[in-house]
Amino acid sequence: MHIIPRLKTMAILPGIVLIGVIAHAASGEPSRTHGLVGLRPLPRTAAMDHGHNHGGSWAGTPTFAEQKGNYPYVAENLDVVKGWLDGDFKTKRVFFEHYWGLSEARDDLDPKKNLLVRVIRQWESQGGVVEHILICREYDLAIHRGHKDAKPGPFKEDTRILYEKDFDDIRVLFKKAHKQSLLKHDNYKLIQMVQEPSFFATDKRFQPIMDKCDGIAYECHQFNRHWPLETGWGKPEKVVEGAKWTLGQNKEYIFYYGPIRWKGKVYYEFMERDWLQKFWEAGLPKHHPKMHYYLNTFPHADGRGRPVGPETDPHSVLGFTKWLIQEIKMDEGANPVN
After folding, report:
1. What pTM value is reported for the model?
2. Which of 17, 34, 69, 184 is the most buried (most CB within 10 A)?
3. Contacting residues for 195 by C-beta, under 8 A, at least 6 apart
4. Are 298 and 260 in contact (CB under 8 A)?
5. Residue 254 in 3-state DSSP?
6. Are 228 and 277 contacting, i.e. CB atoms less than 8 angstroms apart?
7. Burial of 114 (0-12, 13-18, 19+ CB in 10 A)
8. Model pLDDT for residues 69-95, shown as the tens digit of each residue
9. pLDDT for 306-318, tens place per residue?
10. Residue 95 near residue 80 (C-beta atoms within 8 A)
């Protein structure tokens, strides 16, 4: 009852500023001028990851655990981390990938039986805050990896894309799980992972799905069909088209970068930086509150030779992460530090 009379006694300009701040906060829009920088730290420990074989054996590769104490800048300034809350990272914000449509058992809409609910609950029980769920139907790979019941999405142009009903079912699932005290929140950000870098932005059939998800995540590799950059699967102009369309929809866009090369036949110094700079030169937004850069630098093929740290080594994974944080989160126009 006393708030309005007190506001009337304030000077006009401070009143306008205060109201503007309140309106901005109420809108839920981020006040920062840049997006988030995230990292998937792999291998984490020898016990956890040296048994993996993705693009070649990971046995004996450098681990993040071995770099304890060697990355204070990254530990302090990284925004989001995937799959590991036991490192030096100060953040508790996490992201993870989730595949929908591999089997009915995984996607059971009973919250107590659903795998997605179980994964979220696992991270929240460890003190994690789920920032983004990168979700897709991973049919193309899964059908050849033992998931005989995997089903593709609605578009042959990109079978990763979920159905509208998938998003509806998952949103209801979240609400039920929250009501049953299984999850801390009744909704989470679902980011549609895509294969094709611009199909979703150019085909009007995707619009109803875009209206239901919270954004797009595009994986940019330096291997296989993505090589070379100029003529590969993810040509800069196509990626830029998809990113700008997504941001124009007021949705979030995650540039999920990696795995990256190391000292093989085609490597040149700072190739990993050069590719990003070429994307930026082509128009990929660099400083935008909903444009995020997540690194997925696991040891694939010749990339497994790259050192993990320390962050003072600009060629290491942590050194590259430090450079990216400074490029994205620094004030525009400042000079980044290696």
Report:
1. 0.90
2. 34
3. 140, 158, 159, 160, 219
4. no
5. strand
6. no
7. buried
8. 999 999 999 999 999 999 999 999 999
9. 999 999 999 999 9
10. yes
